[in-house]
Design brief:
CATH architecture of the largest domain in chain A: Orthogonal Bundle
CATH architecture of the largest domain in chain B: Sandwich
Helix content of chain A: over 70%
Largest sheet of chain B: 8 strands, antiparallel
CATH class of the largest domain in chain A: Mainly Alpha
CATH topology of the largest domain in chain A: Rna Polymerase Sigma Factor, Chain: A
Number of strands of chain B: 8
Structural class of chain A: mainly alpha
Largest sheet of chain A: none
CATH class of the largest domain in chain B: Mainly Beta
Number of strands of chain A: 0
CATH topology of the largest domain in chain B: Immunoglobulin-like
Shape of chain A: globular
Radius of gyration of chain B: 36 Å
Radius of gyration of chain A: 17 Å
Strand order of the largest sheet of chain B: 5-4-7-8-1-2-3-6
Oligomer: heterodimer
Distance between the termini of chain A: 45 Å
Strand content of chain A: under 5%
């Protein structure tokens, strides 16, 4: 009985969220096997923490997305530079030469076609670092050597464009 | 706190992306809980993030679902069946096991969440649509109201002007440009008897940044300030009553002064001037 109920909840969860979460993970981790592991970890984490989930912290969907993102980013970081280089050659440029990367943040990194090409490079770059690489604002500000306030307003602007896109 | 500024700062986006330190996150939560406008904004940002994830959804590998279920149900079964040897649990240290919550409770929570997530989703998307439409309508009403108020004030100005001109004690003093090459003009309507003065501007350029026009009356050879002229009157035209009661004067003038006006007029900045007949 309990098992059956859980199975139904799991089916629901998987059917509604897995593909989106998998998409988020695959954009951070290109290797399919590793991405599968990360989705599995994320699901178990979500399953186990649902009773710790604090409804004040926003919508459950964004909570799940953030779990998947962080699981993927942690995996990326734990596997170190070798993995990083294998997955996305050129990502290292971020740390040394931010100016050259501006033009390199391409649609296939984020993978959402004309949606993100609509963003100017300086906006796309910040979305890239924050969303797909898990940088905090402070880290972004230091990495790109731009003021914290600018990071925040660019982030706002980038998401505003996404919002307009999705609301139309 | 200025809510609009707070929104524009981009901190809510950073919050949704989980790009804040724990301290900052707590602060945002405290502020947001106090302002419904911020809650709405947060909701809209979250929706965009969700849409982004959904747009990027990818086809799932076939074997994955059962693999994940095996792990989840394995964990569930573990305590009720014979205890597994320790290494089996240690094999996946990445999975944090919840402290001591019974499994039936977790299943019940999940069932409830599944239903409520779906319901919330439907209600939310409906609500978002309504809110957007309502905001658009409110904007329209606001701008119509503004237009209407503006037109009403223009009409009232004309009414005043007509009535004033009909007043026989009213004298029109035309002030002409004092700056060669810059045609400017303004008129003071003055009732010497009643002390009333009205100003009507025919042609004055909008004052430069940080400057304002100031009205003067020359009484016994000395300029006396009648106050600064609101920029609105200059740009919009029309007529305004001046507060000061004037029963004697040999001339009227307008000069360009620093914002807020000066105690005495800057002589080379006198724009227009005129004498009553």
């Amino acid at each position: 009985m309990l098992r059956q109920q859980s199975r139904e909840a799991f089916d629901y969860l998987y059917q509604h969220y897995a593909a989106a979460l998998y998409g988020v993970i695959r954009r951070i981790i290109f290797d399919e096997e590793t991405a599968k592991d990360v989705l599995q970890e994320s699901f178990v984490k979500i399953w186990n923490h649902i009773d710790h989930y604090d409804s004040n912290r926003g919508r459950i969907y964004t909570w799940m997305i953030n779990i998947a993102r962080h699981a993927a980013i942690d995996k990326l970081r734990s596997k170190g530079e070798v993995m990083r280089a294998k997955i996305r050659p050129g990502a290292e440029v971020v740390h040394t030469e931010p100016t050259t990367l501006k033009t390199e943040v391409s649609t296939d990194v984020i993978g959402l076609g004309n949606l993100v090409t609509a963003l100017k490079p300086e906006y796309a770059h910040i979305v890239q670092l924050a969303y797909y690489e898990g940088y905090t604002l402070d880290e972004i500000s230091k990495t790109l050597d731009i003021p914290l306030g600018t990071v925040k307003t660019r982030m706002r602007h980038a998401i505003k464009i996404l919002r307009e896109h999705f609301s139309s | 706190m200025n809510i609009q500024e707070y929104i524009e700062s981009g901190i809510l986006e950073a919050y949704v992306l989980d790009a804040l330190s724990p301290t900052e996150r707590k602060e945002v939560e405290a502020v947001v809980s106090a302002y419904p406008e911020l809650q709405e904004e947060l909701q809209a940002i979250s929706s965009a993030m969700v849409s982004l994830a959904e747009t990027g959804a990818m086809e799932l590998p076939k074997d994955l679902k059962e693999r994940i279920w095996d792990e989840i149900s394995g964990v569930m079964d573990a305590p009720s069946e014979k205890p597994k040897p320790a290494p089996a649990v240690a094999a996946r240290p990445a999975v944090p096991l919840p402290a001591s919550r019974p499994n039936w409770q977790r299943a019940a929570v999940w069932a409830a969440v599944a239903v409520s997530v779906l319901t919330n989703f439907l209600l939310l998307s409906q609500k978002n649509k309504l809110v957007t439409r309502q905001v658009a309508l409110q904007h329209k009403v606001d701008s119509l109201q503004e237009q209407q108020q503006y037109l009403a004030s223009v009409v009232a100005d004309y009414d005043k002007e007509r009535e004033m001109l009909a007043d026989t004690s009213m004298e029109a003093v035309l002030m002409k440009t004092m700056q060669p090459g810059h045609p400017m003009a303004a008129t003071v309507y003055w009732s010497r008897k009643k002390g009333d003065t009205y100003l009507s501007i025919q042609k004055l350029p909008p004052p430069p940044q940080g400057k304002q026009y100031q009205m003067w009356v020359i009484q016994n050879g000395k300029p006396v300030s009648m106050g600064v002229i609101p920029d609105g009157l200059v740009t919009r035209g029309g007529m305004a009553r001046l507060d000061m009661e004037v029963t004697n004067g040999q001339a009227f003038a307008i000069s360009l002064e620093k914002e807020g006006g000066s105690p005495t007029p800057t002589m080379d900045q006198i724009q227009v001037m005129g004498k009553p007949s």
